[in-house]
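Just curious. Protein, please.
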Amino acid sequence: MIPRGHSATIHAVARPCSNPWASNFRPVRIAHRTSLPYRSSSTTTHRSVTTIPSANTGDAGAIASNPAIRRSRLSWIYAITFLFLGLGTGQIVRFTVLPPPLPLPGTEEDTILINTLNAQADALPIVLELRAHNADWKEWPAYSNIRPSHREHRLSTGPMAGARGLGVQRVFWNEEERRAISVVFFGGGLSGWPGVVHGGTIATIMDESLGRVAILQLAQKAALRANEWERPGVTANLELSYRAPTLANRFYVLRAEIDESKTHHNTDTKRWVKGVLEEVGTEKVCVEAKGLFVVPRGIKLTPLEEGF
């Protein structure tokens, strides 16, 4: 209703909607009002007021819905991302905690794995470097000359044999420097905690590797028995410090040499040897060890063959 003394003109304008979600157009009413705020008999003042058209209700609804659409898309992205992360993590945990069955030593599958591991060992930088100086370093596979009738009765060549155990163990011996470097592969069957090599397994390998250096120092070849050692040493003391976890299914480097800090304790019948177990490539020390090896008195031991 227009008050008395005012005049108004109403125009209906159809404003096109730029929002594609709006399906109808509503006319916007624009009122031009002419008022006479101060009534005068001689002068008439005309005042025109234009109201800016308002947005269509369809536009407002679509605009208001845009944040919700964006939130919905982000929710799907997050859901799919965490789904794949969960599946991937689950597979890793499953194969770590419950790995697939490992082949038994001597089977065809085990032979294939052993050949694969040997090929990988041949490509390791430490192996290539030592072989490049083969005049200084003598190489042999550990326990390679152990008699077949004795192999299954030894811990290293019996229960710990095969790709699931000591898949590879290469020995490099430097006669002049009197030290040894071994490249070892710990299989999944040697784990204590899932994926981590048992501490007792490491102690066994450190014992035999350090003992190998001591025996090569102590032993004297028998005059009448070629390729055999008359005085093998035995372990009198062994100390280990576990510095970092040793993970299964990986290659490691074991270095062993005479402990020069105990030179005054070394005699013809005993030797102190020290060694470390390192990660391949990073040279990160996982285990440190030192041991005392002696020639027993009054006990006749089976002579060791070369290649032990």
User: Anything to note?
Assistant: Helices lie at 57-97, 108-122, 125-132, 148-151, 199-218. The CA atoms of residues 117 and 123 lie 10 Å apart.
